[in-house]
């Protein structure tokens, strides 16, 4: 197991402004190495954000110079001796995919292993020029963990995914952009301003119900046929056009004003399971 956190440690900092919740993993002295305590604090923050109508968009980043280099070294060392990382049920590592609000990863530095999984599980990824990515697993004697072998090919294609998974080589930010692994690359001091500006535009101008529906469609359509996607979209359109957001979206457009959409409060029901 990883070492216990200091008493009163705030593992995930939260700052809500203009509909955008900034979540900052706060273990800079350990480069934001992943622990079960950090995991539970982060996923609980996502659950709380899902139920909070004041939160429209979520941005996640790391304190200090690192995003998350993977499992904390103390836990990794213990695992080589057969000590389980946790003795309690844990949330799925792709939990961000279940959140009905956009989750944007602002990758400010090292992003590896579980940190890489968290970035890929997010809906969008903005990266600093200082960011470096690696799947890491093959070089630690591990398989592709926590459905990354399912998520990554859908993001960058099977050939590119196999390259990154088999070699576990380090990918610089510019190559990550070329591969489609990240959406934007900016200078380090511009990362949060650019990411937050994008998030605030979504929060101010896009329907929370529409964004939740679109996110669900894109993720579910990975496993649907084209015709199933079309039929599902017909049902979703009929549901949303009967709602207040559609009326407000049309009215604000015709009246040439900013929309005033109501916030979304949604329950997130994701079962925990046993993980090593």
Describe this structure in words.
The chain has ten helices and nine strands. The protein has 276 residues and is α/β, with parallel strands linked by helices. It has two domains: 12-203, 2-enoyl-CoA Hydratase, Chain A, domain 1 (Alpha-Beta Complex), CATH 3.90.226.10; 207-254. The strands form two sheets. It has a six-stranded mixed beta sheet, sandwiched between helices. Strands 5-7-8 form a three-stranded mixed beta sheet. Helix 4 packs across helix 5 (158-167) and helix 8 packs antiparallel against helix 9 (226-241). It is globular, with a radius of gyration of 19 Å.
List the helices and strands and how they pair.
Layout: E1 12-17, E2 20-25, H1 36-50, E3 57-62, H2 73-80, E4 103-107, E5 110-112, H3 114-121, E6 124-128, E7 132-134, H4 148-156, H5 158-167, E8 171-172, H6 173-179, E9 184-186, H7 191-205, H8 208-220, H9 226-241, H10 244-254
Parallel strand pairs: 2-3, 3-4, 4-6, 5-7, 6-9
Antiparallel strand pairs: 1-2, 7-8
Kindly list the characteristics that best describe this protein:
alpha/beta, 2-enoyl-CoA Hydratase, Chain A, domain 1, six-stranded mixed beta sheet, 10 helices, 14% strand
Principal-axis shape: globular
Summarize the helix and strand pattern as letters. EEHEHEEHEEHHEHEHHHH
Largest sheet: 6 strands, mixed
Helical fraction equals 40-55%
Low-confidence segments, given as residue ranges, are: none
How do the strands of the widest beta sheet line up side by side?
1-2-3-4-6-9
- CA-to-CA gap between the ends? 10 Å
Task: Tell me the number of strands.
Answer: 9
Radius of gyration: 19 Å
Figure out the total of helices: 10
């Amino acid at each position: 197991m990883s070492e216990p956190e200091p008493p009163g440690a705030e593992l995930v900092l939260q700052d809500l402004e203009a509909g955008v919740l900034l979540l900052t993993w706060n273990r800079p002295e350990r480069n934001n190495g992943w622990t079960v305590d950090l995991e539970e604090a982060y996923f609980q923050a996502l659950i709380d954000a899902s139920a909070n109508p004041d939160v429209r968009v979520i941005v996640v980043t790391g304190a200090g110079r690192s995003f998350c280099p993977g499992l904390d070294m103390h836990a990794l060392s213990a695992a080589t001796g057969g000590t389980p990382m946790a003795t309690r049920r844990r949330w799925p590592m792709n939990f961000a995919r279940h959140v009905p609000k956009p989750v944007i990863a602002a990758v400010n530095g090292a992003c590896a292993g579980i940190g890489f999984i968290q970035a890929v599980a997010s809906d969008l990824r903005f990266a600093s020029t200082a960011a470096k990515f690696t799947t890491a697993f093959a070089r630690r004697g591990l398989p592709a963990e926590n459905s990354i072998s399912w998520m990554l090919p859908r993001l960058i294609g099977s050939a590119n995914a196999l390259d990154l998974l088999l070699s576990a080589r380090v990918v610089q930010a510019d190559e990550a952009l070329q591969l489609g692994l990240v959406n934007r690359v900016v200078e380090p001091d511009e990362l949060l301003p650019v990411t937050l500006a994008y998030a605030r535009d979504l929060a101010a101008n896009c329907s929370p119900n529409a964004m939740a529906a679109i996110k669900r469609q894109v993720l579910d359509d990975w496993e649907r046929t084209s015709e199933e996607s079309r039929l599902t979209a017909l049902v979703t359109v009929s549901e949303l056009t009967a709602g207040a957001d559609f009326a407000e979206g049309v009215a604000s457009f015709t009246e040439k004003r900013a929309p005033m959409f109501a916030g979304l409060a949604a329950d997130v029901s994701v079962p925990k399971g046993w993980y090593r």
